[in-house]
Amino acid sequence: MADFLIVMTTVDNQNAARKLSRSAVEANLAASGQVTGPVETTYRHLGEVSEGIEYQVTFRTTGDRREALEKHLVDNHPYDSPEAIAITIDAGRAEYLDWITRATR
What we know:
Blueprint: E1 4-11, H1 14-26, E2 32-45, E3 48-62, H2 66-76, E4 85-88, H3 94-103
Antiparallel strand pairs: 1-3, 1-4, 2-3
């Protein structure tokens, strides 16, 4: 299991993004959550290609918090089948990575 991760999801409005970001940090599931957007998205859904506006939420967390963070996102997400992807942080300043650990405890 990776020690440190970036976990991402997207939602359809800024308020939902802010709510997911704040609730995950308050629950100590992520050290931080950043809301970016609006972003334009092209996607395939139910056989149709569509376009829309979304907001991306990017979390920094530890490997041992990933499953709980994913469950939190799924349970509190406005989409039926939300994105919850994780990317390993391969390297970072020790002080920053220590902060991620402390902030998720």
